[in-house]
């Protein structure tokens, strides 16, 4: 009888140890995946940016939440605030010129811009961490006309919980996020997302 009890105790202890090891490995693996994903978004500070708890942040799954206001400069040095666009629909895109998926979707963003520039849709493409000359050279070379904003220190990217790019938000006239897309989009996908914003 003692042998049976001892065997049962041993099985329970081994099962518990196995669970702890598996749980630890899963947790470590998840942390490494998040770290690798953040590293892939930037050559500089996205991977090392510490969360500023005093700044509001967009929850990664928070739809129907208010978009956080920000003020950034465009390529002409003019300040652009999200709050100034209340009453307009906003397609907010986070990107960088070194990011292949970002570059792949830009011709479609330009096409959408050309088709909607006289409407109430505003396209804002927020560049993460690159200097103005690099960004301007890339935009001029490709003859893009949509509005480019510079998030040099990636403060806005942090507020919007950007962990990979491109990432896009679709914001309605009341400043509410109605959709979010991580990854490159086709023109048709962009149109579908834009159509989810109230008119």
UniProtKB/TrEMBL annotation:
InterPro entries assigned: AhpC/TSA, Thioredoxin-like_sf, Thioredoxin_CS, Thioredoxin_domain, Thioredoxin_ResA/DsbE_sf
Domain Thioredoxin positions: 61-199
Top-level division of the source organism's lineage: Bacteria
UniProt region (Disordered), positions on chain: 28-58
PROSITE patterns, A to Z: THIOREDOXIN_1, THIOREDOXIN_2
UniProt-recorded Gene Ontology molecular function terms: antioxidant activity; oxidoreductase activity
Designated name of the protein: Thiol-disulfide oxidoreductase ResA
């Amino acid at each position: 009888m003692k042998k049976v009890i001892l065997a049962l105790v041993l099985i329970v202890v081994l099962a518990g140890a196995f669970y702890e090891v598996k749980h630890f490995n899963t947790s470590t693996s998840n942390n490494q995946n998040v770290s690798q994903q953040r590293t892939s978004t930037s050559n500089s500070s996205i991977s090392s940016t510490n969360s500023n708890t005093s700044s509001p942040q967009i929850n990664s799954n928070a739809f129907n939440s208010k978009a956080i206001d920000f003020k950034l400069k465009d390529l002409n040095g003019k300040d652009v605030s999200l709050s100034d666009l209340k009453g307009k629909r906003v397609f907010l895109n986070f990107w960088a010129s070194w990011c292949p998926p970002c570059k792949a979707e830009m011709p479609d963003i330009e096409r959408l811009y050309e088709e909607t520039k006289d409407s109430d849709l505003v396209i804002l493409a927020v560049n993460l961490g690159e200097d103005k000359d690099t960004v301007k050279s890339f935009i001029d070379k490709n003859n893009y006309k949509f509005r480019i904003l510079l998030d040099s220190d990636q403060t806005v990217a942090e507020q919007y919980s950007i962990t990979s790019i491109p990432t896009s938000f679709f914001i309605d006239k009341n400043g509410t996020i109605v959709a979010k897309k991580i990854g490159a989009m086709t023109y048709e996908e962009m149109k579908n997302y834009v159509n989810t914003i109230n008119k």
